[in-house]
Structures are given as C-alpha cells and as structure tokens.
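Example 4.3 (complexes with small molecules)
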Amino acid sequence: MKIFSSKQLYEADEVTCNNQNITSVDLMERAGSYIFTWLHQRMQGAQVPVHIFCGIGNNGGDGLVLGRLLIESGYNVKCYIANFTDKRSPCFLTNYSRYKDVTKNWPILMKGAEDFPEIAPQDIIIDALFGIGLNRPPEGWVKDLILHINTQRAFKLSIDIPSGLSAEQAVEDFDAIVKSNHTLTFQAPKLSFFLPETGPYVTFYEAIDIGLDAAYLESQEPLAQLIAKPQAQRFYKQRNKYAHKGNFGHSLIVAGSYGMMGASVLATKATMRIGAGKVTAMVPRSGYSILQSTVPEAMVKTDENEDFITNINYDFEPDAIAVGMGIGNNDETATALKALLKKVLCPIVIDADALNCISKTKTLIKLLPENAILTPHPGELARLVGEWTDDYDKIKKCQEFSATYKVIIIIKGANTITVMGNELYINTTGNPGMATAGSGDVLSGCLSGLLAQGYDPLLASVFGVYLHGSAGNIASQTVGFEAMMASDIINSLGDAFLELFRQEEEAPVAQ
Ligand SMILES: NC(=O)C1=CN([C@@H]2O[C@H](COP(=O)(O)OP(=O)(O)OC[C@H]3O[C@@H](n4cnc5c(N)ncnc54)[C@H](OP(=O)(O)O)[C@@H]3O)[C@@H](O)[C@H]2O)[C@@H](O)CC1
Ligand SMILES: Nc1ncnc2c1ncn2[C@@H]1O[C@H](COP(=O)(O)OP(=O)(O)O)[C@@H](O)[C@H]1O
Ligand SMILES: [K+]
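Answer. The structure with adenosine-5'-diphosphate bound is encoded below.
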C-alpha cells in the first residue's frame, strides 16, 4: 500500500472533485459518512453521549458531517468547536450551517478552558481538531484542550490523524497530541504512523477508502510503501517440481568469534530454513565442532586462527554472502573484511561488527559493492550515518547514504524500513518479542538465503524482513513475547511461508 504526502492527498482531493464532477463539500460528506457508518455499525443506536471536538479546518468539517449524520439517526451528540482562528475553511462553514439546520443544540463555541466539558468514562470522544493541515504545535488553551481530552477515560476516536500529530514532519511537542484509542484515516495511512517516535500515538488505525482518484494515486511516486501480506505474496517465487539444490544457490556465512559462535549458528540455520540450496559457514577454528554439531546440514570452513576470522578465503563461487555477525573487532578481521569487499562478486549482506568496522574505517565505505544490503540496528546505524535529530532526519540521512554509495539500508526496529535511494519500504510484521539477542543474526541469514535463491537484493531485503517478522509473530503465538528466543524465529520460518497464502479476515491494524 502506498503512503502519500499531505501535498499529494490535497492534490488527489482536487483531481477527484474535477474528475468525479463533485464539490469539496460532497467529498467531505462522503468522508464523514464513512466515519458515521463505521460508528453506527458499532453503536447500533446506543444513547451513549458522543462528544465531537471540531477544529475550524476541513478536519473539523468532517467532525460536523459526522455529528449531523449521528443526530439524524437519533444519537446523543454534543459538539464543540475549538475556535482557535477566524480562518474557518469554506467546507467547515457549509457544514456548520447544515449542522444547525438539524438540531437546536448548536455546537458550543469554545474560547478557553472554562468551556471544556465534563466527560464520563463510558462516553465517546471524537477528535476532529486538526487533520493533515496542522502546521505548528498546538499552543495555549488548544493545547490545554488536548491535555484535557487526554485525561479522559472515554474511548477516543481520531478522524484522519490524532490531532497534534503531523503526517510527515517531526513533532515538537509530544504532550500536545491526542492519545486516541483508534484512528480512522482517509485513503491511506500517514508516514508518522510507523516511526518509533510518533507511531506510539497511533495504537490502532484503519484506512478508509474514500474513493480518491485511482489513476492519480497510481501515477504518484509515494513517500513510502507499506509491505503487508498482499505485497509479500507477490514477491514469492514458486519452486519448480524438477528443481534440485543447485537451483537454490550456495550461501557463505562469515560469522562468529570466540564467545559469539552462536551468531554463526543462528545465521547459518536461518539461511538453510529460508531455503538456500547449500550453506557454508566460515568460522574461526574453535567454531568447527559447534557448527558441525548444531547445523549438520551446513558445510563448515575454518579460519587458521582459533578465536577470530583473519582470512575470508573460499574455493567456490558463492551465490550470496552474509558477513559480520559476531565477528568481533580485531584488526586482522577488519583487514580480511577489506579484502573481501575488494573481491566479492555476488550479492552481499553486511551486518553487525562488519558495519562497525566500516563506520570506523571510512576508506572501507568506498569499497561497498553496489546493492550491498546493510542491516544496522540503531546503534550501528548512528555510527554509520551519524546521529540524527528525529526520525525524519534519520530517514533522510539513510536516503543520502544509500544514494551516495548505491547500497540498501535496512533500518531495523518495530516497523523495519528498507531504504534504497529515495524509496522507502515499511514492514508491518514483527513484535517486541523479537527484541532479543540474535534476532538480527537470524535476519541476516534470511536475507542471504533469499539472495542465494535468486531474489534480487531489494526484493530479498523487503521480503526477508517481512518473513522474519511474520515468523516472529507466529512464534509469539506459542511462546509469547518474553520467552521468545531467536531460535524460535528460525523454527517458525516454515510457517511464515505457509501463512503467506492462508486466507484471513481484514482486521484493524495494531501498531
Ligand atoms: N485531502 C483529502 O484527501 C481530504 C481531506 N479531508 C479532511 O481535511 C483535512 C485537512 O483539512 P485542512 O487542510 O483544512 O486542515 P486541518 O487539519 O483541518 O486544519 C488546518 C487549520 O488549522 C490551522 N492550524 C494548523 N495548525 C494549527 C495549530 N497548531 N494551532 C492552531 N491552528 C492551526 C490552520 O490555519 P492557519 O492558522 O495555519 O492559517 C487551518 O485553519 C484532512 O485531515 C481530512 O480530515 C476530507 O474532508 C476529505 C478528503
Ligand atoms: N519491537 C520490535 N518489533 C518488531 N521487530 C523488532 C522489535 N525489536 C527488534 N525487532 C527486530 O529484531 C531484530 C533485532 O536485530 P538486532 O538488534 O541486530 O539483534 P541482534 O544484534 O541481537 O541479533 C531486527 O530485525 C528488528 O527489526
Ligand atoms: K484529528
């Protein structure tokens, strides 16, 4: 699913009105009526007070449409206008007068804290203060109103976006954001819903298709693409009945050092589990029996050094390489990495200590092969691209780095983002149970296994991240979050493939 900028959504709004020969007021009526239907289906006429807080822009206009439709269906509606400027939008004004036509209980024009209403815990709050037109942090009594709303125990439903949250810009005042329980967002979710700093303000959302011009939306380069099951299904490459292991490639895993041999075991196992035809694990000598006994399916090649890797030499042409997991930071390992980067011919995943080594020795950055996949966790990322001021700055830094060195960066976290140049792919699978040692090693194995099978680097990244998160979700269903270990993710990779083609009902998206 595409994520659009506010500018694109405003343009889509205009194109839609022109092409469908409707007015903006008609489009607002459509948008508001979808929200009404959603609420009506759940409330079934219940007389619970519904408190609608409207701004004076089009988000407030949506709130007024909803209020009018609820009143016409006999609901108990209390509407408040936060009259924070005189510049009311024309669609707001039209709906303000339409609202007054259907009831004698006109909206209350709030001018300050003295107008804030009492709200019972069982009531419902509709948040229609600000939408995507927010252009500065709410201040003064409008901020106090948001704080007042946030102290209420009533269920809070935000229209389009929680008020105070920007669709795609850094937040200056996190207190001045409505902490809603659910958001009904128009057409497509906004970028801020998926980033670590702002995502927590959107615990659940549903995107409501309000019929914006499909051809226009199709033609637009999105801000980002959301990767969920329908997209992942399309990535899958079916196996040929007559295939043999040679068709699925040979991965080389360069990982492990004394005390961190588990990183090699996890990455090697994940590479096999995700379907590589053959895997060779290259480890220091002390890792030989560990690998042979824990992953009998893999071949093992040992370094001359007992404890860490000093020479990345192979006598076969691998189809994919993953390097760095638990290799430590010895100078000789760094030299071996440099030699590898100079000679590598196949797709490569660069992780963990290999990334730290590259960050430390800037000359190595220039050796990064085109389309190399870099998989830093936040600490490694900061060392690689520099500290960022906020999530958007982080993304910008990654886009610049990716474009300059022609590499793919996977920003790992709750909604892992794959960055290739300006393109962003946001993953929707995964859970906090995966915040456990070794889960990143498993990801590197997954990526190398897909590369070995012939998935191109971008596809391997986006699909691998999706399957890794999906395996984590499946594992969490039996072990829960706390008990989950990286091995559980590996053991669920098979189910993650099966799950790809299982039918299920659409449900609200939990963040
Ligand atoms: N495009 C679509 O697809 C569709 C969009 N629709 C709806 O339109 C919404 C966007 O509407 P919108 O553009 O009128 O902006 P909105 O957020 O209501 O308010 C902006 C107003 O607030 C003001 N203001 C801003 N920040 C402020 C602050 N901190 N403190 C105080 N004031 C502040 C700003 O005025 P300013 O003072 O900056 O001149 C302006 O007056 C969108 O989210 C969706 O709900 C649907 O109806 C149909 C399809
Ligand atoms: N809260 C979370 N939600 C979803 N996925 C997560 C979460 N926390 C961590 N992960 C995933 O787990 C992996 C952790 O990687 P990393 O920190 O490199 O682990 P390690 O270095 O221990 O192997 C990443 O793929 C990341 O996206
Ligand atoms: K809102």
